[in-house]
Known about the structure:
Helices cover 65% and strands 6% of the residues. By secondary structure, the protein is mainly alpha-helical. The chain folds into three domains: 41-348, no CATH class; 361-435, no CATH class; 441-526, no CATH class.
Amino acid sequence: MKNINLFWKYLDEHILLVYIFSFLLASLVFLTNLGMLPLFADEPTRALVAIEMMFSDNYWVPTLQGEFYYNKPPLYNWIIAGLFTLTGSMSEFIFRLPSVIPLLLFGLTIFIWAKKHVSSAAAFLGASMFVTCGRILIYASLLGHIDIFYSWLVFLSFIVFTESLNAKNWWKFFVLTYFIASISFLCKGLPTVVFQGLTIISLLLYSKNFKKLFSLAHATGILLFSIIVGGYFYMYAQHNSLEGWASILWEQSAQRTVIDKPWYESLIHIVKFPLEHLYHLAPWSLFVIFLWKKSVRTSIWKNDSLRMLALILIVNIPVYWLSPGYYPRYLFMLYPIVFILLAQAYMLSTELKSKKIIHGIFIGIGGLLALSGLVLPFISLGVDFNLFKGSVLCMLSLLGVGALVYLKAHKYVGLVLVLVTVRLAFSWIGIPAKLNGNRDLEYKTEAQAIGKKTKGERLKAIRSSSLNHSTIFYIERERKEILTHTAGVWPGEFHIASELLVKKHNFQKLDSLSIKFEGRELYLVKAE
């Protein structure tokens, strides 16, 4: 017992080691089975654009099936294509790295910045809250979406705003943030302009420096933004007209807002929005109880940097609060602000009873995980979960529980360790279980078979066949070339056609594949 107490005392006194261990553990956990699931949600679109850039050797003009794609500028696709080229692999694992690595860097960024303005404990907890909140932990961290990388860039601009405003460094305030904004714009387009504009105006009004809006530094920042973004569109215009960009970028930005939705949908959304985010931010949304005490809120408000972050949150969040068609991932750049405030509230709070209740909930979760690690290896789960994995799960769970019970000054690390262990259990059990009987795997297998069968041959998709992006990606990946549309039938060539076209042209069916979102069968045929 004495040795156990000495162990926990040592960790309490050398908490940086626990921070490093937690970061390394989270890194391994998020990479575990990362490439196991086939591409889903918006992933195939991003992957398809990237490989078509590679196959066409044209990185300025994004395409889908060889046709111009205007929905997103190409920076994120450049990163994906770069990794595909660098590694020589177009696997799901490699595709998802540009999302998972920025997630870890995002957490590190939150910690490094926050510890300059709050305690290291609050900084670590705030960063960990972001990385382990429900929306990130068991959904966003599985996917190769653009949003984590994009949100990291936008959050970087937020902290540059606060730091440079504190230092009254107007060149940094404008020029550096416009540089980041130009990179962000090349990822996702017009939302960047909204974040940049609202944040600049609100902070200048707050600091009573509105005249700086008309300064040389601001003009220089705008010029830099225009040169970088304009430079891309100049290069694009050498290959294709710019006419499609303006309307599509606006449509992409406006289609999920109150502009594009009936009034009653907007009203329902306004009520649901905060409730939904209590769910997405769980379990850390429980920490809102620590903000109830006025003394805690007052103490937070006295911190200039936290006050500026809160202002950035307040002026930017209505854009999404009033947008019924938004996705929670669009707010990832605002989540860290909420979590830094909640972490600081937790550290300042003297509500010991509330803390004990929350600690008790996590101890219960950790205890169940430890028990699961001992029992599940002996139960048929339909996945590879052996005694070694069970032992690791048990030990990590007990480590988290032990931190909550035995640490004196840093019990909060136990909360983080328990959630990281939850994610490890999900990586080892949940992800393989999702693969069992997963129709996406069947769609992938069928598409790859078509790709292999026609590799080196001419293949076209008849336009009315309506292939989804996932199927197209796996066919193109096997064939190493773009699968184009055709309106007609080309003698001597392979085609992908619908049942209706097979009957119309009396084609012989050589193979078949299922279409995910329409429940239809398409067929590989060869025109005579």
